[in-house]
Amino acid sequence: MPGQSLGLIETVGLAAAIEAADAAIKSAHVTLIGYELTQGGGMVTVKLEGEIGAINAGVAAGVMAASKVGTVYAHKVIARTAQHIECMIYSADTLGITAAEPEAEPVPFENPLTIPVRNVEELNVEETPDQSTCMDFSEEAPKKEQSTVTVNNSQKPRGAGRRK
Predict the structure, then answer these.
(1) Dihedral of the CA atoms 36, 102, 31, 95 (nearest 10)?
(2) What is the per-residue pLDDT across 64-112, written as a single tens digit (0 to 9) for each?
(3) I need a surface site. Which of 6, 47, 84, 125 has the fewest CB within 10 A?
(4) Strands 71-78 and 94-95: what pairing?
(5) 105 found inside a domain
(6) What is the CATH number of the domain that holds 54?
(7) How many domains in the chain?
């Protein structure tokens, strides 16, 4: 989260908060951190994170959509949050936070095929089978005869004889 921007939308009622979160996520590349219910008054705070431009667009879209459903009490964008306020953002009161799953350990790959490797210096010439390549042939492919092309110069150049 450090270095990311934080977007907060505070609404009256859960329906307006859900509408705000839905519009913000659909309009910009932002991540929903969760929502927090306040102590009384029916206030709900939606928490979003992402890049500053995306947060600005997401909060603006969320405020507009939530104001059609209910009342938007406040909204705020904080660019590049400080490192020590994470405990306030990811508090125990924030609902909807999904715990990050631990990454599974990679399974080691076992190759069922083993290919014997021999050092080139150990090979004897008698052991290697006779292998011929395309470079071994001394005959060259027959060359095609060059054909001559005659050009008829008696024709008028293009565009000659046209009116100007």
Answers:
(1) -10
(2) 999 999 999 999 999 988 877 877 877 777 777 655 455 566 666 666 6
(3) 125
(4) unpaired
(5) no
(6) 3.30.70.1710
(7) 1
